[in-house]
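Researcher: Quick test of sequence recovery. Tokens follow.
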């Protein structure tokens, strides 16, 4: 394969502030209560951190719920606090978020072709729109640790189905660090602060202590 062909591979073309958008699907209280493949506190932390870092990096964000006034309840408060106050959440009835024209139009309006997606549950709310977006010509990135589901079997099935369809599997911190691209960027500290990774916090504290003692 020529270098030119390699350069056009969607698996090797990096996420950037100009080509990426974020889609968050159904991080709702009712669904969160059934999550068993990841700690609920960890999941809430990760999706909120993903949303915060996206704002720091000016990544357009689309958020959707299903039956927020009844079936699955409202968005988890942690995520609500992390999102812009004026962001309109799309409440829909379709099982596949991509099946709602408002969701597709909101994604299309971003003008971005790389779509970062997280959702509850992995095998439905994440997998269905990720697979549909891939079929529609987007490069879909499934953020596994900002998503959750109701059993390990469902998690495995969802991951396998997405990988078979060409969805790119990733995690919340790696996704945003890839977009940051350079630790000398003026927004680097703000991005890492938003991501709130325990080891990064420790490194920052050690670095600060070293600087003072030096």
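Model:
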């Amino acid at each position: 394969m020529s270098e030119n062909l390699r350069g056009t591979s969607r698996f090797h073309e990096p996420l950037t502030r100009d080509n990426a958008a974020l889609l968050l699907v159904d991080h709702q209280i009712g669904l969160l209560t059934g999550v068993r493949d990841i700690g609920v506190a960890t999941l809430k932390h990760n999706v909120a951190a993903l949303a915060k870092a996206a704002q720091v990096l000016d990544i357009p964000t689309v958020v959707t719920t299903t039956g927020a006034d009844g079936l699955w309840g409202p968005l988890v408060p942690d995520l609500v606090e992390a999102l812009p106050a004026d962001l309109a959440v799309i409440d829909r009835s379709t099982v596949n978020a991509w099946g709602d024209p408002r969701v597709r139009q909101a994604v299309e309006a971003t003008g971005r072709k790389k779509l970062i997606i997280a959702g509850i549950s992995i095998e439905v709310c994440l997998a269905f729109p990720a697979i549909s977006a891939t079929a529609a010509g987007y490069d879909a990135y499934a953020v596994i640790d900002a998503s959750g589901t109701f059993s390990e079997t469902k998690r495995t099935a969802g991951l396998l189905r997405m990988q078979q369809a060409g969805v790119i599997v990733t995690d919340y911190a790696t996704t945003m660090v890839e977009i940051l691209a350079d630790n000398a960027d003026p927004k680097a500290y703000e991005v890492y602060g938003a991501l709130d990774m325990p080891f990064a916090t420790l490194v920052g504290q050690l670095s600060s202590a070293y600087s003072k003692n030096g």
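Confidence is low (pLDDT under 50) at residues 1-6.
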